[in-house]
Amino acid sequence: MLSTVLRVLVRCWPALLAWFLVGWTVRALIIRGGSYLLNISYDLGDLVLPLAILAQLAAYVGMFFAIKRELRHVSQADDVQAGESAVSAARQWRESLLASILPFFLLYLAWNLNVADRTDLYAASLTQGNFGSDSRVESVTWFVLGFAVLAFVARWLLGRFSARLPRWSTLLATYLEAVWVFIALSWIQHGLGILGSWLSTRRMFGGIVDAWAELRANFAWLGAIGDAIGWTWAQIGTLVGLPLAWLAFASIIYFGTMPRSPRPDSSVARVASERWNRMPVWLQRVGSTASAGILDRWRPVTLAARLIWRSGPIAMGTYLLAFAVITAASEWLSMLIFRLLGPHEVAWWYGASDAVNLGVSAVLAVLQVCVVAAAFDHALRSDAAEQGALEEIVEEAGDAVSAAAAPAGTPPST
User: pLDDT, tens digit, for every residue of 282-292?
Assistant: First the structure.
């Protein structure tokens, strides 16, 4: 795995750096332009931020595609066998991008990576003139929620009739997918925070809260254990959950490059389908409409989880350690650069700190992509003992990405 990281880094770092800088530049332009809308209404920021995140998502997709030729096992999995059909580069790009929106946005909001985007958007709005409005509209939250519902319905329709629509409709589908996913996840995140505060103030839970406070007061070691468990859980989320989420994200991107090989349904799926077909027609239509696209969007994530699970403890431990070392090294690199630059006026740091942070972020992103891609390539190694399980994942991967990119629809043939 480490040799793959070094080979990819030496041969592909210019392309990786270029893709990262393009994504950063587009994101900055979107943030700057979107600040005008924010002066009209705060809630319109929810319609701009998905575009900024999409710019970063597209950049990462380009970074993973740029190094694909250096991943030996990925190249072998991309070989077209009998009964399979190759996928054009344009289709690989648009399907990988669409299929990775939901997991990438979930990763982005779960680790609060959107805080920097929202902060930059609000900071930029302070220097922008108002767009012909003397007062801001504060209470359009329901408008934004309605727009999310409308975006979900329109996205479903674009997926349902994707085979009949021109290719440029993919751009609209991508934005609509990003908008409804971002708003839905933001509302869920906000709702969970409110729910926790609400439950803590309810009388029915008051006894439990008071009892725990009394135990902590009487037994100091119990409070220390509770704090240690909470701290450990938070560290596990950062040291294990975050790199595994990135690996799942990379898996979905590379799944989109694999040949398509339609496979017959399993006996369990066939029996379930026969029973479902015996249901009343109206019930079938309601069930199909309600669940259309939901399972398709999560199928690539399921395959990615299966692939990660079969990697083995040694390879997975090596990957987690490498990811943690790179992340920690970026913090030390920032501190080292600031120390070397020495003391300066505050005004000087306003300009210099942004350049330093951009440089460190670029180095971190390039190294992380190399490590994540190498871990995925290692997971595709040809172990005879698990070759059958690997072939099953690879054969399903391409079709799963196509279905996630066009939920409830028929993926285009080219």
Answer: 566 655 555 55
